[in-house]
Every structure is written in structure tokens, then in C-alpha cells.
Amino acid sequence: MEKISLSEKEIPTHYYNILADLPEPPSPPLNPETNEPIRPEMLEPLFPKALIEQEVSREKRIEIPDEVMEIYKKYRATPLYRATRLEKLLGTPAKIYYKYEGASLTGSHKLNTALPQAYYNKQEGIKALTTETGAGQWGMALSLAAKFFDLKCLIFYVRLHYQQKPYRVSFMRMFDAEVLPSPSNQTIIGRKFLKEDPNHPGSLGIAISEAMEKVTDGSIKYSLGSVLNHVLLHQTIIGQEAKLQLEKDDEYPDVIYSCFGGGSNLAGISFPFLSDVLTKKKKVRVVAVEPDTCPTLTKGEYKYDFGDTAKTTPLFKMYSLGADFIPPKIQAGGLRYHGAAPLVSHLVNKGYIETISVSQTDVMEAARLFTQTEGILPAPESAHAIKGAIDEAIRCKKEGVKETILINISGHGFLDLQGYEEFLDGKLAVQ
Amino acid sequence: MEKISLSEKEIPTHYYNILADLPEPPSPPLNPETNEPIRPEMLEPLFPKALIEQEVSREKRIEIPDEVMEIYKKYRATPLYRATRLEKLLGTPAKIYYKYEGASLTGSHKLNTALPQAYYNKQEGIKALTTETGAGQWGMALSLAAKFFDLKCLIFYVRLHYQQKPYRVSFMRMFDAEVLPSPSNQTIIGRKFLKEDPNHPGSLGIAISEAMEKVTDGSIKYSLGSVLNHVLLHQTIIGQEAKLQLEKDDEYPDVIYSCFGGGSNLAGISFPFLSDVLTKKKKVRVVAVEPDTCPTLTKGEYKYDFGDTAKTTPLFKMYSLGADFIPPKIQAGGLRYHGAAPLVSHLVNKGYIETISVSQTDVMEAARLFTQTEGILPAPESAHAIKGAIDEAIRCKKEGVKETILINISGHGFLDLQGYEEFLDGKLAVQ
After folding, report:
1. Which of A211, B15, B36, B307 could form a disulfide with A130 if both were Cys (CB 3.0 to 4.6 A apart)?
2. A304 has which bridge partners?
3. Test the A interface: residue of B6, B167, B175, B374 with most A CBs within 10 Å
4. Using a CB-CB distance cutoff of 8 angstroms, which residues of chain B are in contact with residue A1?
5. pLDDT tens track of chain A, all 431 residues?
6. Spatial distance between the Cα atoms of B330 and B294, rounded to a whole number of angstroms
């Protein structure tokens, strides 16, 4: 329960770009019609130029704009805690540290990228943003960021989670966002799936297709909450802060566990540490923890695939369960994605990141243990990292090993309580 | 949006006891059978001795136990913000500062008193606590505190809000608390009201009676979330921190607006400043803001009355709408109480605290404005203070007055989103 804070002056001023440290670059995205690499300007209908520059930049440090930093300072640096009460309960010689991004204004790490994305769009005269959201954390974050930078916001919210987590809809609406359950009847791809099943549960792949279909003129652009390089870039403020905070305890992690959906949380907490590995300064294990119902990294194929179900995106070299894969219904909606960030996929493929998958029941049980000892209710997504850390700490106990474990609690679970209620009642099923 | 933090070392080490500064003491609680003042030992069936001592103490500073401080440090000091974006939108010359207790582990200021209450009970060998909760924030706080200090916890949750805010039930259950909608069929008083109406909405007065009825032997004690001196005492850490934080900006408030239910939030934010008034060091206006549907201070009578509906408590000298008053159905469940803290009542009666009442619709509108500018979704209770501050800031604009306004956001509104949804849909009614 010990808290390690940073003063306002200690907040990192730049994002960290892992592309600068990679010995060989990841395979480029391809134009599906020509199989030629995508040129940056081909992305201009979708994204503002500043974000496209970040997408392809090889600069190691990219400055955080003042206007974004001003809002970051309202909730950053987020605290780093040592889980002393959890360690004690487990009787482990391991030290468990957790960064807490649930302390952000919208309750998850997603705000870290929503703010610069909204800012750069506003800078280039854009009037509105359209996006998808899985469990809803990203939709909440973009709703706030859009309102703060005076942009309209249209959100396609995967229907399963729109119904599971209705409070998130209300939160987005408090910021005047328009929120539609996806698949919706507002797009061609949406109507196609609704025809198959009027209560289709949806998926991130479908919602991405719907949002991209809405980019009809130059005044509206598309915004993505994970997967792409610039999104992962913005999240590196998490790991940079964690590193400074651990230094205050004279610590460096032996292993980092992270939940894995699209990759932004994993990149955020681990890339600043992987920088030390890539530059041969330190060693650290990084483990991606996936739901066993959507095992992209553990069971997917490393290949070129589409980022969305309508197959409208470029082809990305990534681990994928196939663009047509509709994941089973689970609570951790942020992890229900068929693909994976190309950067993370590359690092997995090169052996820098390990992967495991866990069951929903084990994850919720880990969340309960964490809540009861640390007093913080995690999002079900974040609970995947907790499950990984607890198992590691138990292994340390068995083997008598003193390890330092780091995780990121990417969001709080206040708006996931319907799922926890079902868990407590023994009614939580994977469908 | 500017944030003012305190370092861990700057967190106050003592609670502030306003009884030490009062020129004349408030009228004592009376035994309803004899009309004689209650002797402290008569409270021993209900509370541990340490809390009874605090209830009657005249010591100005009461030390915070180490075991409590250790947990406080996980979420304290809470941030103080200047509402620069809200000020700008209002175009006011006033400065608006807000303390943010929504940053606590359970999302409200209630944890500040739940922790020492659980701690002192545990110290004296108690095994279980029973309590009431209105909107549910207090129940959440006591659930966590009871689990942290290894106590069982039984909570009577006012049925209206049990139904309105079901996520709070789930949160309490995550900490193994037993939660019953009140009136329940587990008590004599509960059954009486259920007979009148099987879906009786309940009130804090009824829930207090039910919880007290459950104190049947020495191993279980009763815990209260507001009203009593020792509860108000624990909350003074809020105002003490705010004072230190404002000093860093060279500021002192001209006026403090606070929502008012039982009095613990108002006492928490204002008593450390009223100390300066009572000791003639400074001047500050303090304004209690109530819902117009439960106008205890603005329309109640200052008299001896019972704290609960079953009339089992001592008689307290306080503003009251009558122990039989069942408030209309509103979202701000924490403010639906017929009575008022005797200490606050005394200060109102002596002219140290002003009172106003506001409508639910105006409050929710103020909450929306605050959310959209400051990015923090307040609890509907806290939004009463926001409404007061906004009206004051508009007055400052009209009159060209530069005032410094201080409020406390006593809790976040993530678990009140069903009410906000109704508000956004224009369906929110007082019934």
C-alpha cells in the first residue's frame, strides 16, 4: 500500500518512441489492392498530419504539447503503489508494484492518447471525430478530450458492452458525445451484421469498420484507441513515470505483466523498460496476458491481416485470429480484438515479449483478492495483469525467489460492477 | 484545472476538534426518558470507548492513529484544484477552488471516518459493525474499512437508492459486506414500514433504526457515517489539507459552499476555517446548500429531536424536519436526512453558517457544466456545492467582485450515472 508519487516537475515532457531503438523495423502496413507499403499521405483522409508523422517517426523522444500537458497535470503523475497488503496475504518474497491509471479523469489510461489525438485534430481544423469503443473506456476518454478541444464526437460502442456497461454510455453523453450500439443501422457494414442478427453482440473489428465508414469528408476524422504506433507512443508516459517512481525505491522490475487487447496498455507500461533491453542496458521480462477466449498472441497467426471486419483498413503484419473472428462474450471488452498492435507483434515475434492466456473466472477471482487487500477495484481488463502477477508471486514463494514484479492497473472497475455482481452470484459465464 | 498537491509529509497528523474553539458548548444530547444529559458511558453499547471519548473531547488536536494514517496515505492528500476552465466559461472574476475527495479509494470522503471507526472498534475486540447508508457512499467506505480491519459488516441501504444505484451494492459485496435494502424484514421497525408499503423507499432515519436494532450483544457495534461529533472530527482532515494547499497559492477563501445532508462533509471542509473565525483570526462565510426537497436547515425547527425514525436514539438539539419525515425521492441520497449534526446546527443557530436550498434540476445542470469544463463527474450530493459556487461566481461577475470560493467535491458520480442518464433524457423527477 505504499504510494510513490512524482512532483509536477518530474512528469516526463516527451513520449518515448520505441521505433528509434529497434535493430530492425517492423514490416510496414500494405495497401491491400497493390500489396505495396502504405505511404504516409495515404492516411491523410483518416488522421491529421501531425499524428501520421508520429506514426512513422524514428525520433526517440517526441515532445508533449503544452496544451496536452496542461490537462495531463490534472491527473498525472498517476501513483505507483507497492502492494504490501497483497504480498503479505500471498506470503510471497516477491515485491509487487502497481501503477494506477484508474486515477485519470475518465478512470483509465485511454485519456493519455485521447487528449493528444483531439488536440492535433483541432490544430488542423477538424470539426468532429468518429471512433469505436470496446468496453467503453476509450469512448469515455475521447468524449472528454473532444469536449475539451471543442470537437464533436461520434462513438460506435460494441453492443455487448453497450448493454453490459450502460453507465459508460451515460458518461459519454455527459460530454455531449453521440453513442450508438455497434453494429448499428447507420452504416453499410452495421446493417449487414444486424441483418444476420438484430441483437448482434458486435466486436471491435466491426465497430472500427463502422467508425471508418463515417469519415465522409475532410471535416471529420477517425480516431483509434489502440493498435497504431502513435497511440502506443502516447501511452509511454505511463512506463516512464513508473521507472522514475521505482528509482525512488531503488527498484527495477524483473518482470512486467500486462493485460493485452490491442496493445496500448502493454506498450505504455513496458516500452520504456524494453528500451533498456533493446539498448542492452538492462534485462526485464515482459509478459502479455490475454483472455483465453480471445488468444490473439498465444494462438493467432503472425501474418498480414486487416485491422477491421469490413476489411477497409490497410493490411498490418500482426498476430491475428482472422478479421472475421467474433470473440465470445466476456466482461473484459477491451481485450476482445482479433488483431494486435504491429509493434507489439514484432516484439513478440522477436522474443522480447512472452505471452500467456487466462480464464475469465480466474481473472475475476484475482480482481476480488486485489480489491480486498489493496482497496482498489480494477477493471476486468487490468485484472488480467493482476492474475499474472499473483501467479508469479506464488511461484516466487514456492521457489524462494525475490523478484520485483510490475503491473499497470489500466483502469478502475466502478463501471464494470454489473459483471462483478454476476461473478459474486456465480452467474458469470462465457457465451 | 491547476492542481495543488501536498507531499506525504505535509498531510496533517491530527484531527481538528471545533469544540475546543466554541465560546459556548452546544446543548448536550438528552436521555428521552429522563430528559437528563446522556452520560458518555451510556453510549458504550453502541460505540467503542475511544470514539465516545472523541465524541465528548475538548482537546483541540486529536492524533490520527498510525494504522489509519498508513491507509490515508494511499489516497491522501487529495488534490485541490482551481477550476480555471469553469471560471473562464462563466467569465467570472472570482476564483473557484475545489478539493476532490472523489479521489479516495471508495470514491468519497466517507472513507476518512470509516477507517478510524473500524480501527477503534477492532482495537476494542469488536467482531462486526452494523450501519445504515443513504446513497451508498458510506456503505462502500465502511465495507472497505471493515475488511481492512477484519470486521464483519452489515449494511442497511435505503431501498430507494439500493434500487437507483445497484453498483454500490456490488461494490460493498466485493468486500464481503452483507447489504439489505431498508426497510428490511430483518428488524421490527423494518417490518412495520414494509407492512405499510412492501416497496417502501426508506429514509436514513429508518435505516439508522434498523442498524441500531441489530446491536444485540457486545461483539457487534453500530457505526454512523455523519451527524455525530466524532464523525465530523475525522472529516476535518479535508479542510486542514485545503488550507495548506490554498496557502501555497497565497489564498484564503472568502466563502465556502458545501452540500448539506447530515453535516460531515460541511464540517470536513469548513471547520478548520471556522476555527480562524471563532478565534478571531480571519473572516470566512460558510454556506450550507440543501436540496429543496429536504430543507432541514432552511425550513426545519431548531429543537430536541430523535436522530432516527424509530425514536431509539438520544434526543439531539438540532434542526429537524421531524423524525417521521420521509423525504421525497431524489438522486442525492446522502442529503435525504430529517435532522442535522448538532455541532453544525449550533453554528447555524449562532450565525456562523448560512443556509440555502436548491432544486434537483438546477443541481444536475450545474453538475453537467462542471463535468464538461473540469472533466470530473461529481456525485449529485457534491453538485449542490457546485451550484452554490456557480451562482456566487455569477454574482461576482455582475457586481465586479473578486472573491475566492472554496468547495469540496465530496465524491465522484461514476455510480450515480443512472440518475444522470435520466437527467439527460429529461426524465428526472422528484417524486
Report:
1. A211
2. A317
3. B167
4. 70-71, 73-74
5. 589 999 999 999 999 999 999 999 999 999 999 999 999 999 999 999 999 999 999 999 999 999 999 999 999 999 999 999 999 999 999 999 999 999 999 999 999 999 999 999 999 999 999 999 999 999 999 999 999 999 999 999 999 999 999 999 999 999 999 999 999 999 999 999 999 999 999 999 999 999 999 998 889 999 999 999 999 999 999 999 999 999 999 999 999 999 999 999 999 999 999 999 999 999 999 999 999 999 999 999 999 999 999 999 999 999 999 999 988 988 888 999 999 999 999 999 999 999 999 999 999 999 999 999 999 999 999 999 999 999 999 999 999 999 999 999 999 999 999 999 999 999 987 76
6. 9
Rg (CA), chain B: 20
Domain ranges of chain B: 3-7+66-108+230-424
Question: Are A105 and B376 in contact (CB < 8 Å)?
Answer: yes
Mutate to test the interface with A, among B2, B417, B420 (most CBs of A within 10 A): B417
d(Cα B18, Cα B50) in Å, to the nearest integer? 18
- What dihedral angle (degrees, nearest 10) is formed by the CA atoms of A83, A88, A89, A91? 120
- The pTM of the whole model exceeds 0.95: yes
> Cβ A105–B375 below 8 Å, yes or no?
yes
- Grid-cell match 505495396, residue found: A36
Q: What is the CATH number of domain B3-7+66-108+230-424?
A: 3.40.50.1100
Using CB atoms, pick whichever of B166, B171, B424 lies closest to residue A170: B424
Using CB atoms within 10 A of its CB, is residue B25 exposed (0-12), middle (13-18) or buried (19+)?
exposed
Hey, are the CB atoms on B371 and A174 less than 8 Å from each other?
yes
Q: Shortest Cα distance from B168 to chain A (angstroms)?
A: 8
